[in-house]
Amino acid sequence: MGRVGQKLPLSSLFMLLLVLSSTWCPLPVHGWFEIYFDLITVYVMNDLAPYTTLNLHCKSKDDDLGEHKLAHGQNFNWTFHINFWQTTLYWCSMWWYDSNGQVVQGTFDIYKARRDYARKCRSQCCWFIRKDGLYLGVYKGDAKLMFHWPK
Ligand SMILES: *[C@@H]1O[C@H](CO)[C@@H](O)[C@H](O)[C@H]1NC(C)=O
């Protein structure tokens, strides 16, 4: 029984994630599995301006997610579990050129377990990177400005 019985919930979770990932920022799901699996996906979306590339480099203490160039409207996303001590921290350096050709850059704590769990980023955290700063939300419309670009 053990083997098959244990595989079922995982594969249905996988199917659910496949279905959900058909939109770039899926709706939050609140269900029993959340409590047991705590599988979190962070999306970082280039919402700057047409033809503006966002350069992104995200890391945690153990994980270097690499450098990525995002075209306008593209996102970078990754999935993880909160660690046992709830100290999971991902930070991202990002930079882009404004219309004057000046580089705009900053490094931000993009996922911090305790902070973001309290903000209800329990399955999806969606960041919209805009000209005036970094917005966090579950939906595009409800995203709130969390960080300004450093001056
Ligand atoms: C997640 O990122 C990958 C590229 O790393 C992209 O192909 C995929 O569409 C993204 N997922 C969603 C739901 O947008």
What's the layout of helices and strands?
Elements: H1 2-20, H2 32-37, E1 39-46, E2 54-59, E3 64-70, E4 75-81, E5 89-97, E6 103-112, H3 113-118, E7 124-130, E8 133-137, E9 144-147
The structure holds 2-acetamido-2-deoxy-beta-D-glucopyranose.
Residues 21, 24, 75-77 line the site of 2-acetamido-2-deoxy-beta-D-glucopyranose.
Signal peptide: 1-31
Keywords: Secreted, Self-incompatibility, Signal
Pfam families: Self-incomp_S1
Largest sheet: 5 strands, mixed
| CATH architecture type | Sandwich
Looking across the biggest beta sheet, what order are the strands in? 4-1-7-8-9
CATH level-1 class = Mainly Beta
Mean pLDDT: 82
Unreliable runs, pLDDT <50, ≥5 residues? 1-5, 31-36
SS summary, helix count: 3
Total domains, how many?
Answer: 1
Helix-strand pattern: HHEEEEEEHEEE
The CATH topology is given as Immunoglobulin-like
Approximate helicity band? 10-25%
Q: Provide the structure class.
A: alpha+beta
How far the N terminus sits from the C terminus, by CA atoms, comes to 60 Å
Short key terms for the protein model shown above:
Immunoglobulin-like, four-stranded antiparallel beta sheet, binds 2-acetamido-2-deoxy-beta-D-glucopyranose, secreted, Self-incomp_S1
